Amino acid sequence: MTFNEFVARFGNEEDCRNYLYEIRWGNGFICPKCGHDQAWAIKNQLLFTCRECRHQTSVIAGTIFEDTRKPLRDWFIAIWWITTQKYGASAEGLRQVLGLRSDQTAWAWLHKIRTAMVSPNRRKLSGVIEVDESLIGGVESGGKRGRGSENKALVVVATEIDGKKLGRIRMKLVDDASGESLLGFIIENIKPGPEIVADDWSGYSKLSEKGYSHTIHVQKRAKSEYEMLPHVHLAASLLKRWLLGTHQGAVSHKHLQAYLDEFVFRFNRRTSSKRRLLFYRLLENAMLVGHTTYRSIVEKDNNI
């Protein structure tokens, strides 16, 4: 979708609001409180009153757009721009596109949109999966495996193996490399049954008890973990390159998961030629993931 096509399709607030209505209630209005399917509109279609329980709601209630003071069209422009950026979006870039007054506001907008990059209904990984951990951050100080140093974050990475290529991936920030952390990640992101290729770290020792087949991948001639588990370490190296290139490495550990979610969203759709579909999917998710306040994002950390 070119920008001219975008402008023609979403020229005003009504166009944007009607589009969101179709996403949320394409099969007809449903009251979020009682489930009744009849309502009347007030305030120029901004609010809907349920005929059964009289509960009032709007098309953006309970979404990332709730309580916004900016036009919906600005949000649409932001999402269109983000989905057209091949290597990712920065707060400074979004600030310039929308004419926002501060980088902090643009940063908060990006984080709200990043919450929509994880679909509540996304399919778990399947097939043969490589899994390992990677340290993200400063210079390693020689700590034990799974601990690292104070200025490093531990990220678990899983990749589908598609022949010699990378399939879909998942990434999650974890507190440590304990069995509880690693198994929690695997159960959340990988469908039971497939072969999981990992090393002999004790955190993976109970995989078989959870319905997974664990292949310990140790090559005697391998000089590094990269050679033992090449797919997962390629994904981790691409992540690090992206963080340094797009965000200059200035990502707080407290917000790292949001950046991991964006990287995974972009990577898993890297071969898509239909940018219009990416725009739709991101808007669709934005209507499902729930409301996140500006304060709850900013107060996590002042290092943005």
Give an overview of the whole structure.
This protein has helices at 3-9, 13-25, 72-84, 91-98, 103-115, 179-189, 225-228, 230-247, 256-267, 275-286, 294-298, and strands at 39-42, 47-50, 56-57, 129-137, 152-162, 165-174, 195-198, 213-216. It has 304 residues and is an alpha/beta fold. It folds into 2 domains: 3-116 and 278-298, no CATH class; 129-251, Ribonuclease H-like superfamily/Ribonuclease H (Nucleotidyltransferase, domain 5, 2-Layer Sandwich). The strands form 2 sheets. It has a 5-stranded mixed beta sheet with strand order 6-5-4-7-8, with helices on both faces. It has a 3-stranded antiparallel beta sheet with strand order 1-2-3, with no helix packed on it. A hairpin with a 4-residue loop joins strand 1 and strand 2. The protein is globular and about 60 Å long. Residues 139-147 have low confidence and may be disordered.
Tally of discrete structural domains: 2
Number of helices: 11
Structural class: alpha/beta
Number of strands: 8
Q: Strands across the major sheet, in which order?
A: 6-5-4-7-8
What form results from the Cα inertia axes?
A: globular
Order of helices and strands: HHEEEHHHEEEHEEHHHHH
Beta-strand content estimate: 15-25%
Rg, alpha carbons? 22 Å
Helix content: 25-40%
CA-CA gap between termini: 31 Å
Low-confidence stretches: 139-147
Arithmetic mean pLDDT: 86
**How is the biggest beta sheet arranged?**
5 strands, mixed
